[in-house]
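Quick check before the chapter quiz. The format below is the same one you will see on the exam, so make sure you can read both the input and the output lines.
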Amino acid sequence: MANAQTLTHNQLQFERVKNAYDEKWTSLREVLSKFSIGHSPLMLINAYKAEKTLEVWMKNPGDKFYQLIKVYEFCASSGLLGPKVMEGDKQTPEGFYYINVLNPMSNYHLSLGINYPNHVDIERTGKQNSPGGDIYIHGSCETIGCIPLTDDKIKELYLLAIFSTDLKTKKIPVNIYPFKMTEENMKKYAIQFPAHVDFWKTLQLGYLAFEKDKNAIKFKEAKGKYVVK
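Here is the expected output.
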């Protein structure tokens, strides 16, 4: 797996990736052409737990804005709204991450790993507990904290990821939100989950920044919090 995390031509040597390419790439290329997306574009993923949807945004390196290219539905979900806190809680994380693994031999067909836990997650969990790990966007239709899309849909997302950029030099952002963070939704879910409101407000700043600028969120992780720049 470690040798398969970088260049596209290496990925295509794996049978599942090659089969996905033969099956899906022509139609995906047509979709990208409609948006004038060319060779080696940049990619960004927004996922919403309440809506159970995953958005794929892309742009050419010289473009000012990302464009919404694809929307996929989660095939299954686990846990409740709110961040993942510790190993075994079955929660899907919430926060600002990036893809750090491409696994062409996943137990769930194909999978894209995210860099959970980050510093914010570790600070939240505390030294006395384990935050867990192995959080992926993957195929199949089962989960205990990951985001499954079905084998058919992960073929598309996986191809878009490997053709978007070389992960040696670029990182594909993955922003996982509890819900689409409008003021209306914040008020709605704050009633049900008051303990998460302060954390959600930090995520909302990133959500609103992207909604306004359609560009990657600029933030830092400081003292267990996201600070959106």
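If your answer matched, good. Residues 88 and 170 are 31 Å apart (CA to CA).
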